[in-house]
Structures are given as C-alpha cells and as structure tokens.
Here is the input.
Amino acid sequence: MEYVYAALLLHKLGKEINEENLKNVMKATGVEPDEIKAKALVSALSEINIDEALKGAIPPAVSPVAPTSVGPTEEKEKPAEKKKEKEEEKKEEESLEGLSALFG
Here is the structure.
C-alpha cells in the first residue's frame, strides 16, 4: 500500500512514476524499497490513467449527522442544569452557615 501512496504523491507533484522515483520516495520515508513491488506497480500503472481513476473513485460514505432541534434538547438540559444550580446554591448556603458559626 505504501507504494501506491508513493505513486499518488509522485502523480500529485507532477513527477514521473518510475521505479527510481518510487524507490526514492520509499527511501525518504525510512523504508528499504522492494524492487519487485516497485517494478510491479510501475508496470500496472503504465496502463492506467490515474486522473480518470481518481475521478471515478467512489468517496467514502459519510454518515449523516442526526438532526438536532433546539427545543427538546434544551428542555432536557434545563432540568439537569436547574438541579445542579440548586445543589450549588445549597452547598454555598451550608458553607456560609459554617462560616457564620465561626464568627458568631
């Protein structure tokens, strides 16, 4: 698969897709190139118009985002928020009561 990516990179940069260029790209990534794979890919790609193949490629399916409505979700959040606010107020009151006991 790395060789296909290398070939696509060369194509994108407008460079010739040949064995030497493929090997150089593979070396640049830190991988020791396999001469047989490079030769096989160059041979296979010589009969393919890459631009046409890319145009005909089916893009990956994008999962639709579930529609959200402001009303119902907002209503669901409000009780939870109100509950949290009440708990926070209660904690604040308790802490103030404790402080007032210290100062009389």
